[in-house]
Write a structure and sequence with these properties.
Number of helices: 20
Family: Belongs to the monovalent cation:proton antiporter 1 (CPA1) transporter (TC 2.A.36) family.
CATH class of the domain at 153-513: Mainly Alpha
Structural class: mainly alpha
Radius of gyration: 31 Å
Order of helices and strands: HHHHHHHHHHHHHHHHHHHH
Organism: Daubentonia madagascariensis (Aye-aye)
GO cellular component, one term: plasma membrane
Strand content: under 5%
Distance between the termini: 89 Å
CATH topology of the domain at 153-513: Na+/H+ antiporter like fold
Helix content: over 70%
Largest sheet: none
CATH architecture of the domain at 153-513: Up-down Bundle
Shape: globular
Keywords: Antiport, Cell membrane, Ion transport, Membrane, Sodium, Sodium transport, Transmembrane, Transmembrane helix, Transport
Protein name: Sodium/hydrogen exchanger 9B1 isoform 1
Number of strands: 0
Length: about 525
Protein backbone atom coordinates (compact mmCIF):
# COMPACT_ATOMS: atom_id res chain seq x y z
CA UNK A 1 0.00 0.00 0.00
CA UNK A 2 2.77 2.34 0.93
CA UNK A 3 4.61 1.72 -2.29
CA UNK A 4 1.57 2.29 -4.46
CA UNK A 5 0.70 5.52 -2.67
CA UNK A 6 4.26 6.74 -3.07
CA UNK A 7 4.15 5.92 -6.74
CA UNK A 8 0.86 7.79 -7.19
CA UNK A 9 2.24 10.79 -5.36
CA UNK A 10 5.32 10.64 -7.54
CA UNK A 11 3.14 10.54 -10.70
CA UNK A 12 1.01 13.44 -9.47
CA UNK A 13 4.14 15.47 -8.88
CA UNK A 14 5.26 14.76 -12.43
CA UNK A 15 1.84 15.72 -13.85
CA UNK A 16 1.87 18.91 -11.87
CA UNK A 17 5.29 19.71 -13.20
CA UNK A 18 4.30 18.98 -16.79
CA UNK A 19 1.06 20.94 -16.45
CA UNK A 20 2.92 23.96 -15.21
CA UNK A 21 5.41 23.87 -18.05
CA UNK A 22 2.96 24.77 -20.87
CA UNK A 23 1.46 27.47 -18.70
CA UNK A 24 4.86 28.98 -18.27
CA UNK A 25 5.52 28.59 -22.00
CA UNK A 26 2.17 29.94 -23.09
CA UNK A 27 1.80 32.95 -20.90
CA UNK A 28 4.81 34.84 -22.27
CA UNK A 29 3.60 34.25 -25.81
CA UNK A 30 0.17 35.46 -24.98
CA UNK A 31 1.51 38.54 -23.34
CA UNK A 32 3.78 39.09 -26.34
CA UNK A 33 0.86 38.63 -28.72
CA UNK A 34 -1.29 41.00 -26.72
CA UNK A 35 1.51 43.55 -26.74
CA UNK A 36 2.05 43.19 -30.48
CA UNK A 37 -1.72 43.41 -31.10
CA UNK A 38 -1.88 46.59 -29.02
CA UNK A 39 1.07 48.08 -30.86
CA UNK A 40 -0.45 47.17 -34.25
CA UNK A 41 -3.79 48.68 -33.28
CA UNK A 42 -2.11 51.80 -32.01
CA UNK A 43 -0.08 52.06 -35.22
CA UNK A 44 -3.13 51.57 -37.40
CA UNK A 45 -5.07 54.13 -35.41
CA UNK A 46 -2.20 56.54 -35.87
CA UNK A 47 -1.93 55.83 -39.57
CA UNK A 48 -5.68 55.96 -40.32
CA UNK A 49 -5.96 59.73 -40.57
CA UNK A 50 -2.76 59.81 -42.58
CA UNK A 51 -4.14 57.38 -45.20
CA UNK A 52 -7.33 59.36 -45.47
CA UNK A 53 -5.38 62.55 -45.96
CA UNK A 54 -3.16 60.88 -48.62
CA UNK A 55 -6.23 59.85 -50.63
CA UNK A 56 -7.61 63.35 -50.63
CA UNK A 57 -4.41 65.15 -51.48
CA UNK A 58 -3.15 62.61 -54.07
CA UNK A 59 -1.64 64.94 -56.67
CA UNK A 60 -1.05 62.61 -59.65
CA UNK A 61 -4.49 60.93 -59.90
CA UNK A 62 -4.58 57.18 -59.32
CA UNK A 63 -7.02 54.36 -59.95
CA UNK A 64 -10.10 54.87 -62.10
CA UNK A 65 -9.52 58.59 -62.69
CA UNK A 66 -6.02 57.90 -63.96
CA UNK A 67 -7.36 55.16 -66.24
CA UNK A 68 -10.00 57.45 -67.74
CA UNK A 69 -7.51 60.26 -68.36
CA UNK A 70 -4.97 57.84 -69.88
CA UNK A 71 -7.44 56.16 -72.24
CA UNK A 72 -8.91 59.48 -73.26
CA UNK A 73 -5.49 60.88 -74.07
CA UNK A 74 -4.59 57.72 -76.03
CA UNK A 75 -7.72 58.13 -78.14
CA UNK A 76 -6.93 61.77 -78.70
CA UNK A 77 -3.39 60.95 -79.85
CA UNK A 78 -4.70 58.26 -82.20
CA UNK A 79 -6.99 60.88 -83.70
CA UNK A 80 -4.05 63.29 -84.03
CA UNK A 81 -1.90 60.68 -85.80
CA UNK A 82 -4.71 59.80 -88.21
CA UNK A 83 -5.35 63.50 -88.84
CA UNK A 84 -1.69 64.02 -89.68
CA UNK A 85 -1.96 61.27 -92.31
CA UNK A 86 -5.45 61.80 -93.75
CA UNK A 87 -6.30 65.42 -93.00
CA UNK A 88 -9.99 66.18 -93.45
CA UNK A 89 -11.09 62.52 -93.24
CA UNK A 90 -11.12 62.65 -89.44
CA UNK A 91 -12.81 66.04 -89.28
CA UNK A 92 -16.63 66.38 -89.09
CA UNK A 93 -18.10 65.27 -92.40
CA UNK A 94 -15.20 62.90 -93.19
CA UNK A 95 -15.47 59.13 -93.49
CA UNK A 96 -13.16 58.28 -90.60
CA UNK A 97 -14.91 60.76 -88.32
CA UNK A 98 -18.27 59.21 -89.22
CA UNK A 99 -16.99 55.67 -88.61
CA UNK A 100 -15.55 56.60 -85.23
CA UNK A 101 -18.77 58.28 -84.11
CA UNK A 102 -20.91 55.37 -85.30
CA UNK A 103 -18.56 52.80 -83.75
CA UNK A 104 -18.44 54.37 -80.29
CA UNK A 105 -22.12 55.31 -80.34
CA UNK A 106 -23.00 51.70 -81.18
CA UNK A 107 -20.84 50.41 -78.33
CA UNK A 108 -22.43 52.85 -75.89
CA UNK A 109 -25.90 51.91 -77.16
CA UNK A 110 -25.18 48.22 -76.63
CA UNK A 111 -23.84 48.84 -73.11
CA UNK A 112 -26.82 50.98 -72.16
CA UNK A 113 -29.23 48.29 -73.34
CA UNK A 114 -27.40 45.73 -71.22
CA UNK A 115 -27.93 47.93 -68.17
CA UNK A 116 -31.71 47.68 -68.59
CA UNK A 117 -32.64 44.79 -66.31
CA UNK A 118 -36.23 43.85 -65.60
CA UNK A 119 -36.88 41.28 -62.84
CA UNK A 120 -37.65 37.77 -64.15
CA UNK A 121 -37.02 38.94 -67.72
CA UNK A 122 -33.88 37.91 -69.66
CA UNK A 123 -31.54 40.69 -70.86
CA UNK A 124 -32.07 42.19 -74.30
CA UNK A 125 -29.43 41.57 -77.00
CA UNK A 126 -26.92 44.46 -77.21
CA UNK A 127 -27.13 44.50 -81.01
CA UNK A 128 -30.52 46.18 -80.67
CA UNK A 129 -28.90 49.14 -78.90
CA UNK A 130 -26.26 49.31 -81.66
CA UNK A 131 -28.96 49.41 -84.31
CA UNK A 132 -30.90 52.14 -82.54
CA UNK A 133 -27.72 54.20 -82.06
CA UNK A 134 -27.11 54.27 -85.82
CA UNK A 135 -30.78 55.06 -86.45
CA UNK A 136 -30.68 58.02 -84.04
CA UNK A 137 -27.48 59.38 -85.62
CA UNK A 138 -29.10 59.32 -89.07
CA UNK A 139 -32.40 60.90 -88.07
CA UNK A 140 -31.22 63.68 -85.72
CA UNK A 141 -30.78 66.69 -88.06
CA UNK A 142 -27.74 68.35 -86.48
CA UNK A 143 -25.78 65.09 -86.04
CA UNK A 144 -26.60 63.66 -89.48
CA UNK A 145 -25.01 66.67 -91.19
CA UNK A 146 -21.57 65.90 -89.74
CA UNK A 147 -21.66 62.07 -89.40
CA UNK A 148 -21.48 60.69 -92.93
CA UNK A 149 -19.87 57.55 -94.36
CA UNK A 150 -19.39 57.00 -98.08
CA UNK A 151 -21.29 54.06 -99.55
CA UNK A 152 -18.06 52.41 -100.74
CA UNK A 153 -16.61 52.40 -97.23
CA UNK A 154 -19.88 51.14 -95.79
CA UNK A 155 -20.14 48.36 -98.36
CA UNK A 156 -16.57 47.14 -97.74
CA UNK A 157 -17.09 47.04 -93.98
CA UNK A 158 -20.40 45.19 -94.24
CA UNK A 159 -18.95 42.64 -96.65
CA UNK A 160 -16.07 42.08 -94.25
CA UNK A 161 -18.61 41.57 -91.46
CA UNK A 162 -20.42 39.07 -93.71
CA UNK A 163 -17.13 37.22 -94.22
CA UNK A 164 -16.60 36.96 -90.45
CA UNK A 165 -20.16 35.65 -90.04
CA UNK A 166 -19.51 32.98 -92.67
CA UNK A 167 -16.18 32.04 -91.07
CA UNK A 168 -17.86 31.58 -87.70
CA UNK A 169 -20.63 29.55 -89.34
CA UNK A 170 -18.17 27.28 -91.14
CA UNK A 171 -15.97 26.75 -88.07
CA UNK A 172 -19.05 26.28 -85.91
CA UNK A 173 -20.31 23.30 -87.89
CA UNK A 174 -19.66 20.25 -85.75
CA UNK A 175 -19.47 17.08 -87.91
CA UNK A 176 -20.25 14.84 -84.93
CA UNK A 177 -23.33 16.85 -83.96
CA UNK A 178 -24.52 16.89 -87.56
CA UNK A 179 -24.01 13.13 -87.82
CA UNK A 180 -25.89 12.57 -84.56
CA UNK A 181 -28.82 14.87 -85.38
CA UNK A 182 -28.94 13.85 -89.05
CA UNK A 183 -32.29 14.58 -90.70
CA UNK A 184 -33.73 16.70 -87.88
CA UNK A 185 -30.99 19.31 -88.23
CA UNK A 186 -31.33 19.41 -92.02
CA UNK A 187 -35.10 19.78 -91.84
CA UNK A 188 -34.84 22.58 -89.28
CA UNK A 189 -32.14 24.46 -91.19
CA UNK A 190 -33.56 24.20 -94.71
CA UNK A 191 -37.34 23.80 -94.44
CA UNK A 192 -38.34 26.97 -92.51
CA UNK A 193 -35.88 29.15 -94.45
CA UNK A 194 -37.12 28.02 -97.86
CA UNK A 195 -40.79 28.22 -96.87
CA UNK A 196 -40.40 31.70 -95.41
CA UNK A 197 -38.60 32.81 -98.58
CA UNK A 198 -41.46 31.50 -100.74
CA UNK A 199 -44.08 33.04 -98.43
CA UNK A 200 -42.33 36.41 -98.44
CA UNK A 201 -42.13 36.31 -102.24
CA UNK A 202 -45.86 35.56 -102.46
CA UNK A 203 -47.01 38.21 -99.98
CA UNK A 204 -44.62 40.90 -101.22
CA UNK A 205 -45.80 40.32 -104.81
CA UNK A 206 -49.43 41.05 -103.89
CA UNK A 207 -49.01 43.48 -100.96
CA UNK A 208 -45.86 45.44 -101.88
CA UNK A 209 -46.22 45.00 -105.68
CA UNK A 210 -42.77 43.41 -105.97
CA UNK A 211 -41.71 41.45 -109.07
CA UNK A 212 -41.25 37.75 -108.34
CA UNK A 213 -37.45 37.86 -108.48
CA UNK A 214 -37.39 40.76 -106.00
CA UNK A 215 -39.86 38.88 -103.82
CA UNK A 216 -37.55 35.86 -103.55
CA UNK A 217 -34.59 38.14 -102.88
CA UNK A 218 -36.54 39.69 -100.00
CA UNK A 219 -37.53 36.21 -98.85
CA UNK A 220 -33.94 35.03 -98.49
CA UNK A 221 -33.07 38.22 -96.62
CA UNK A 222 -35.82 37.38 -94.11
CA UNK A 223 -35.21 33.61 -94.12
CA UNK A 224 -32.08 33.55 -91.97
CA UNK A 225 -32.18 33.09 -88.21
CA UNK A 226 -29.69 35.00 -86.06
CA UNK A 227 -27.00 32.97 -84.23
CA UNK A 228 -26.11 36.16 -82.32
CA UNK A 229 -29.48 35.87 -80.53
CA UNK A 230 -30.18 32.12 -80.59
CA UNK A 231 -26.78 30.74 -79.53
CA UNK A 232 -26.28 32.77 -76.30
CA UNK A 233 -29.87 32.12 -75.27
CA UNK A 234 -29.49 28.38 -75.88
CA UNK A 235 -26.23 28.24 -73.94
CA UNK A 236 -27.93 29.90 -70.95
CA UNK A 237 -30.67 27.26 -71.01
CA UNK A 238 -28.08 24.53 -71.41
CA UNK A 239 -26.13 25.75 -68.38
CA UNK A 240 -29.23 25.31 -66.21
CA UNK A 241 -30.10 21.92 -67.74
CA UNK A 242 -33.26 22.77 -69.68
CA UNK A 243 -33.92 20.63 -72.76
CA UNK A 244 -30.55 18.88 -72.76
CA UNK A 245 -32.09 15.42 -72.41
CA UNK A 246 -33.44 15.63 -75.97
CA UNK A 247 -30.63 17.86 -77.22
CA UNK A 248 -32.80 20.88 -78.06
CA UNK A 249 -30.12 23.55 -77.39
CA UNK A 250 -27.54 21.55 -79.37
CA UNK A 251 -30.00 21.12 -82.25
CA UNK A 252 -30.80 24.84 -82.48
CA UNK A 253 -27.13 25.87 -82.23
CA UNK A 254 -26.04 23.48 -84.99
CA UNK A 255 -28.98 24.30 -87.26
CA UNK A 256 -28.52 28.07 -86.97
CA UNK A 257 -25.26 27.98 -88.94
CA UNK A 258 -26.77 25.82 -91.70
CA UNK A 259 -29.82 28.08 -91.85
CA UNK A 260 -27.61 31.10 -92.51
CA UNK A 261 -25.72 29.21 -95.23
CA UNK A 262 -28.95 28.40 -97.06
CA UNK A 263 -30.20 32.00 -96.82
CA UNK A 264 -26.94 33.59 -97.98
CA UNK A 265 -26.59 31.17 -100.90
CA UNK A 266 -30.18 31.82 -102.02
CA UNK A 267 -29.72 35.58 -101.68
CA UNK A 268 -26.56 35.60 -103.82
CA UNK A 269 -28.34 33.56 -106.49
CA UNK A 270 -31.29 35.96 -106.54
CA UNK A 271 -28.92 38.95 -106.64
CA UNK A 272 -27.21 37.61 -109.75
CA UNK A 273 -30.62 37.09 -111.39
CA UNK A 274 -32.03 40.51 -110.43
CA UNK A 275 -29.07 42.63 -111.51
CA UNK A 276 -28.07 40.76 -114.68
CA UNK A 277 -29.25 41.65 -118.17
CA UNK A 278 -29.45 38.11 -119.58
CA UNK A 279 -32.31 35.65 -119.66
CA UNK A 280 -33.46 33.43 -116.83
CA UNK A 281 -31.71 30.32 -118.16
CA UNK A 282 -28.43 32.18 -118.59
CA UNK A 283 -28.70 33.61 -115.07
CA UNK A 284 -29.34 30.17 -113.56
CA UNK A 285 -26.36 28.72 -115.43
CA UNK A 286 -24.12 31.58 -114.27
CA UNK A 287 -25.28 31.00 -110.69
CA UNK A 288 -24.43 27.31 -110.98
CA UNK A 289 -21.04 28.29 -112.34
CA UNK A 290 -20.43 30.59 -109.36
CA UNK A 291 -21.44 27.83 -106.95
CA UNK A 292 -19.12 25.31 -108.62
CA UNK A 293 -16.18 27.72 -108.62
CA UNK A 294 -16.75 28.61 -104.96
CA UNK A 295 -16.97 24.98 -103.83
CA UNK A 296 -13.84 23.94 -105.74
CA UNK A 297 -11.77 26.93 -104.59
CA UNK A 298 -12.90 26.50 -100.99
CA UNK A 299 -12.08 22.79 -101.02
CA UNK A 300 -8.55 23.36 -102.35
CA UNK A 301 -7.82 26.21 -99.92
CA UNK A 302 -9.32 24.24 -97.02
CA UNK A 303 -6.96 21.30 -97.57
CA UNK A 304 -4.07 23.77 -97.88
CA UNK A 305 -4.85 25.40 -94.51
CA UNK A 306 -5.12 21.95 -92.90
CA UNK A 307 -1.39 21.36 -93.36
CA UNK A 308 0.07 24.88 -93.61
CA UNK A 309 1.20 25.99 -91.08
CA UNK A 310 2.34 22.65 -89.65
CA UNK A 311 1.64 21.64 -86.06
CA UNK A 312 5.22 22.13 -84.88
CA UNK A 313 5.22 25.90 -85.46
CA UNK A 314 4.83 28.52 -82.75
CA UNK A 315 1.78 30.81 -82.42
CA UNK A 316 -0.24 28.32 -84.43
CA UNK A 317 -3.76 29.71 -83.72
CA UNK A 318 -2.69 33.24 -84.70
CA UNK A 319 -1.17 32.10 -87.99
CA UNK A 320 -4.18 29.96 -88.86
CA UNK A 321 -6.60 32.74 -87.98
CA UNK A 322 -4.66 35.22 -90.13
CA UNK A 323 -4.61 32.85 -93.11
CA UNK A 324 -8.32 32.10 -92.79
CA UNK A 325 -9.29 35.76 -92.45
CA UNK A 326 -7.09 36.93 -95.31
CA UNK A 327 -8.17 34.14 -97.67
CA UNK A 328 -11.87 34.52 -96.91
CA UNK A 329 -11.93 38.33 -97.13
CA UNK A 330 -10.04 38.14 -100.42
CA UNK A 331 -12.47 35.50 -101.69
CA UNK A 332 -15.62 37.49 -100.80
CA UNK A 333 -14.42 40.91 -101.95
CA UNK A 334 -12.42 39.59 -104.90
CA UNK A 335 -15.28 37.49 -106.26
CA UNK A 336 -17.46 40.60 -106.37
CA UNK A 337 -14.82 42.50 -108.32
CA UNK A 338 -14.53 39.82 -111.01
CA UNK A 339 -18.31 39.23 -111.23
CA UNK A 340 -18.58 35.86 -109.42
CA UNK A 341 -20.93 37.13 -106.70
CA UNK A 342 -22.01 33.77 -105.27
CA UNK A 343 -18.52 32.21 -105.21
CA UNK A 344 -16.95 34.08 -102.29
CA UNK A 345 -19.42 33.00 -99.64
CA UNK A 346 -19.36 29.33 -100.62
CA UNK A 347 -15.56 29.40 -100.83
CA UNK A 348 -15.46 30.76 -97.27
CA UNK A 349 -17.83 28.10 -95.93
CA UNK A 350 -16.03 25.19 -97.62
CA UNK A 351 -12.59 26.47 -96.57
CA UNK A 352 -13.48 26.89 -92.89
CA UNK A 353 -15.47 23.66 -92.62
CA UNK A 354 -12.73 21.49 -94.20
CA UNK A 355 -9.98 23.19 -92.20
CA UNK A 356 -11.93 22.84 -88.96
CA UNK A 357 -12.34 19.08 -89.44
CA UNK A 358 -8.57 18.60 -89.37
CA UNK A 359 -7.90 20.99 -86.47
CA UNK A 360 -10.51 19.31 -84.22
CA UNK A 361 -10.04 20.72 -80.67
CA UNK A 362 -7.31 23.13 -81.75
CA UNK A 363 -9.77 25.24 -83.71
CA UNK A 364 -11.12 26.75 -80.49
CA UNK A 365 -8.07 29.03 -80.38
CA UNK A 366 -8.77 30.16 -83.95
CA UNK A 367 -12.41 30.77 -83.11
CA UNK A 368 -11.50 32.97 -80.16
CA UNK A 369 -9.41 35.20 -82.44
CA UNK A 370 -12.23 35.34 -85.00
CA UNK A 371 -14.70 36.24 -82.25
CA UNK A 372 -12.46 39.17 -81.24
CA UNK A 373 -12.55 40.40 -84.83
CA UNK A 374 -16.35 40.07 -84.74
CA UNK A 375 -16.49 42.18 -81.57
CA UNK A 376 -14.93 45.01 -83.60
CA UNK A 377 -17.10 44.64 -86.69
CA UNK A 378 -20.41 44.01 -84.91
CA UNK A 379 -20.87 47.63 -83.69
CA UNK A 380 -19.88 48.92 -87.13
CA UNK A 381 -22.29 46.56 -88.88
CA UNK A 382 -25.40 47.36 -86.85
CA UNK A 383 -24.53 51.03 -86.49
CA UNK A 384 -24.16 51.40 -90.27
CA UNK A 385 -27.40 49.51 -90.91
CA UNK A 386 -29.27 51.77 -88.52
CA UNK A 387 -27.79 54.83 -90.21
CA UNK A 388 -29.13 53.68 -93.61
CA UNK A 389 -32.78 54.08 -92.56
CA UNK A 390 -34.08 57.62 -92.91
CA UNK A 391 -37.56 58.40 -91.61
CA UNK A 392 -37.92 61.42 -93.89
CA UNK A 393 -37.60 59.29 -97.05
CA UNK A 394 -40.19 56.70 -96.02
CA UNK A 395 -43.67 56.93 -97.46
CA UNK A 396 -46.66 57.07 -95.16
CA UNK A 397 -47.83 53.50 -95.76
CA UNK A 398 -44.42 51.87 -96.25
CA UNK A 399 -43.89 50.78 -92.65
CA UNK A 400 -47.35 49.21 -92.37
CA UNK A 401 -46.96 47.29 -95.64
CA UNK A 402 -43.48 46.09 -94.69
CA UNK A 403 -44.59 44.95 -91.23
CA UNK A 404 -47.59 43.11 -92.72
CA UNK A 405 -45.44 41.26 -95.26
CA UNK A 406 -42.83 40.34 -92.66
CA UNK A 407 -45.43 39.19 -90.12
CA UNK A 408 -47.27 36.93 -92.56
CA UNK A 409 -44.03 35.34 -93.75
CA UNK A 410 -42.95 34.85 -90.13
CA UNK A 411 -46.22 33.09 -89.31
CA UNK A 412 -45.57 30.68 -92.18
CA UNK A 413 -42.08 30.06 -90.82
CA UNK A 414 -43.34 29.29 -87.30
CA UNK A 415 -46.03 26.94 -88.61
CA UNK A 416 -43.56 25.17 -90.91
CA UNK A 417 -41.09 24.68 -88.07
CA UNK A 418 -43.80 23.17 -85.87
CA UNK A 419 -44.89 20.75 -88.59
CA UNK A 420 -41.33 19.66 -89.44
CA UNK A 421 -40.59 18.94 -85.77
CA UNK A 422 -43.74 16.82 -85.42
CA UNK A 423 -41.91 13.69 -86.56
CA UNK A 424 -38.79 14.11 -84.45
CA UNK A 425 -39.98 12.76 -81.09
CA UNK A 426 -40.66 16.08 -79.38
CA UNK A 427 -43.65 16.84 -77.18
CA UNK A 428 -46.24 19.51 -77.98
CA UNK A 429 -44.65 22.08 -75.67
CA UNK A 430 -41.16 21.38 -77.03
CA UNK A 431 -42.35 21.83 -80.62
CA UNK A 432 -43.94 25.15 -79.69
CA UNK A 433 -40.70 26.27 -78.04
CA UNK A 434 -38.56 25.29 -81.05
CA UNK A 435 -40.94 27.05 -83.45
CA UNK A 436 -40.89 30.30 -81.44
CA UNK A 437 -37.13 30.10 -80.88
CA UNK A 438 -36.60 29.96 -84.65
CA UNK A 439 -37.82 33.51 -85.27
CA UNK A 440 -35.05 35.99 -84.17
CA UNK A 441 -33.34 37.83 -87.04
CA UNK A 442 -30.34 40.14 -86.83
CA UNK A 443 -26.86 39.53 -88.25
CA UNK A 444 -27.61 38.20 -91.74
CA UNK A 445 -30.37 40.76 -92.26
CA UNK A 446 -27.95 43.53 -91.25
CA UNK A 447 -25.51 42.37 -93.94
CA UNK A 448 -27.82 41.36 -96.78
CA UNK A 449 -30.40 44.15 -96.43
CA UNK A 450 -28.16 47.02 -97.62
CA UNK A 451 -26.41 44.97 -100.35
CA UNK A 452 -29.29 45.26 -102.79
CA UNK A 453 -29.54 49.01 -102.13
CA UNK A 454 -25.84 49.57 -102.80
CA UNK A 455 -25.90 47.48 -105.97
CA UNK A 456 -28.94 49.35 -107.25
CA UNK A 457 -27.31 52.74 -106.61
CA UNK A 458 -24.28 51.72 -108.65
CA UNK A 459 -25.66 49.65 -111.53
CA UNK A 460 -29.45 50.08 -111.67
CA UNK A 461 -30.81 53.35 -110.21
CA UNK A 462 -34.30 52.58 -111.54
CA UNK A 463 -34.49 49.65 -109.09
CA UNK A 464 -33.59 51.74 -106.06
CA UNK A 465 -37.19 51.94 -104.80
CA UNK A 466 -37.40 48.14 -104.49
CA UNK A 467 -34.04 47.96 -102.75
CA UNK A 468 -35.05 50.65 -100.23
CA UNK A 469 -38.10 48.61 -99.30
CA UNK A 470 -35.89 45.53 -98.86
CA UNK A 471 -33.66 47.57 -96.58
CA UNK A 472 -36.65 48.81 -94.56
CA UNK A 473 -38.03 45.28 -94.12
CA UNK A 474 -34.61 44.05 -92.94
CA UNK A 475 -34.38 46.89 -90.41
CA UNK A 476 -37.88 46.26 -89.07
CA UNK A 477 -37.23 42.51 -88.89
CA UNK A 478 -34.23 43.09 -86.63
CA UNK A 479 -36.05 45.68 -84.54
CA UNK A 480 -39.11 43.47 -83.95
CA UNK A 481 -37.91 39.86 -83.89
CA UNK A 482 -34.52 40.14 -82.13
CA UNK A 483 -35.74 41.43 -78.74
CA UNK A 484 -39.02 39.49 -78.84
CA UNK A 485 -37.25 36.28 -79.80
CA UNK A 486 -34.70 36.66 -77.00
CA UNK A 487 -37.47 37.36 -74.49
CA UNK A 488 -39.54 34.37 -75.63
CA UNK A 489 -36.57 32.02 -75.38
CA UNK A 490 -35.64 33.28 -71.92
CA UNK A 491 -39.19 33.23 -70.54
CA UNK A 492 -40.63 30.10 -72.14
CA UNK A 493 -37.55 27.90 -71.85
CA UNK A 494 -37.69 27.31 -68.07
CA UNK A 495 -41.49 26.94 -68.19
CA UNK A 496 -41.85 24.63 -71.21
CA UNK A 497 -38.68 22.53 -71.33
CA UNK A 498 -38.02 19.76 -68.84
CA UNK A 499 -34.98 20.16 -66.64
CA UNK A 500 -32.47 17.34 -66.57
CA UNK A 501 -29.47 18.54 -64.59
CA UNK A 502 -26.32 16.58 -65.35
CA UNK A 503 -23.25 18.75 -64.69
CA UNK A 504 -20.80 16.49 -66.51
CA UNK A 505 -22.95 16.40 -69.62
CA UNK A 506 -23.50 20.16 -69.55
CA UNK A 507 -19.78 20.90 -69.19
CA UNK A 508 -19.00 18.55 -72.07
CA UNK A 509 -21.55 20.17 -74.36
CA UNK A 510 -20.48 23.68 -73.36
CA UNK A 511 -16.84 22.88 -74.09
CA UNK A 512 -17.81 21.61 -77.52
CA UNK A 513 -20.03 24.61 -78.30
CA UNK A 514 -17.97 27.30 -76.57
CA UNK A 515 -16.69 28.64 -79.88
CA UNK A 516 -20.11 30.02 -80.80
Amino acid sequence: MHTTESKNEHLEDKNSQTSTIPQILITPDRSAQEKTAETVLSETEETKPQTKKSIHICCPPQGMLNLIITNGFILFMIWCVIWSFSGSEVLPGGNLFGLLIIFYSAIIGGKLLQLIRIPSVPPLPPLLGMLLAGFIIRNVPFISEYVQVHTTWSSLLRNTALTIILIRAGLGLDPQALKHLKGVCLRLSMGPCLMEACAAAFFSHFIMKFPWEWGFLLGFVLGAVSPAVVVPSMLLLQETGYGIEKGIPTLLIAASSLDDIVAITGFNTCMSIVFSAGGIIGNVLSSLRDILVGVLAGTVLGFFVQYFPSGDQKKLPSKRAFLVLSMCVSAVLGSQRIGLHASGGLCTLMLTFIAGKKWSKEKIGVQKIISKAWNIFQPLLFGLVGSEVSVSTLESNTIGICVATMSLALCVRILTTYVLMSFAGFSFKEKVFIALSWMPKATVQAVLGPLALETARVSAPHLESYSKNVMTVAFLAILITAPNGALLIGLLGPKILTRHYDPSKIKLQLSELEHH
